[in-house]
Here is the input.
Amino acid sequence: MTSYTDEEQRIVAYLRDSVSRGERYFRAKTIAEAIGLSSKQVGVRLPRLAEKSDDVQIEKWSRAKSTTWRVTPE
Here is the structure.
């Protein structure tokens, strides 16, 4: 089992729930607003979660004004 910090648990739980409802693309700002963190707090954790998450697959998808993350269920 992967161990997460409190913030990482909140991010993964949000992503897991959103993916189960059919959402696939996210920005750190959107996640942050939903769970009460700053977009910077979310943005620095997403690359780490992409490497260690067993719950969802997270990949950097595109970068325009801000990075978009593609999330799929494991």
